[in-house]
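Why should sequence recovery work at all? Because a backbone constrains its sequence more than one might expect. Tight turns favour small or flexible residues, buried strands favour hydrophobic ones, and helices have their own preferences. The token representation captures these environments compactly. In the example below, the structure is given first.
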């Protein structure tokens, strides 16, 4: 599938950046092209020039977000650290997002609105989660094989639990008005697997 974000002009990139911030604050249905236009001082027809529909724009955001996240996961793997340390770094990715005005993960908030999106966009969001679950399961399995993690219920179940804990901690933190790092939920989850 074509990477829509790969050849963005500078002005289209500004639109994508603004829309991503708005999604992270208000969700898919919580912003409009008028909001983007006000935020970056651009005319609404200019936004339509780059992205005919909101679904096109959000598809580009999700693709770019997923690609960037995959790059961060590769960077964590390249540290050469053991599985528990890499899982801690993974939790820090969520903390870094949340520390920016309590922003949520793009795909986390979109996942909550999946029923309101096109099937194609919902598949892109699902692909993001699958990327994360695969990486987590492989890392957890590696930790189990190295004798560093005790895995109950299988690596896939633990991966699902850890991702859910981090995504959920962001949502609960925002709902509670807390600045507490979602990484704490990840650390607690991983510490329960330590040998």
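From this structural description, the recovered sequence reads:
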């Amino acid at each position: 599938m074509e990477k829509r974000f790969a050849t963005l002009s500078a002005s289209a990139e500004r639109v994508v950046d603004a829309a991503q911030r708005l999604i992270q604050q208000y969700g898919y249905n919580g912003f409009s092209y008028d909001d983007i236009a006000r935020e970056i001082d651009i005319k609404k027809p200019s936004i339509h020039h780059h992205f005919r529909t909101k679904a096109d724009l959000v598809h580009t955001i999700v693709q770019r977000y997923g690609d960037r996240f995959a790059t961060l996961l590769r960077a964590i793997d390249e540290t050469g650290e053991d599985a528990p340390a890499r899982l801690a770094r993974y939790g820090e990715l969520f903390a870094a997002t949340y520390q920016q005005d309590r922003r949520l993960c793009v795909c986390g908030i979109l996942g909550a609105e999946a029923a309101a999106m096109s099937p194609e966009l919902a598949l892109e969001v699902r692909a993001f989660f699958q990327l994360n679950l695969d990486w987590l399961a492989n890392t957890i399995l590696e930790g189990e094989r190295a004798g560093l993690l005790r895995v109950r219920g299988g690596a896939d179940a633990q991966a699902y639990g850890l991702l859910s804990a981090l995504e959920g901690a962001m949502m609960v933190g925002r709902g509670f008005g807390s600045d507490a790092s979602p990484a704490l939920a990840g650390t607690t989850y991983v510490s329960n697997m330590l040998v």
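A few observations help interpret the result. The CA atoms of residues 108 and 167 lie 6 Å apart.
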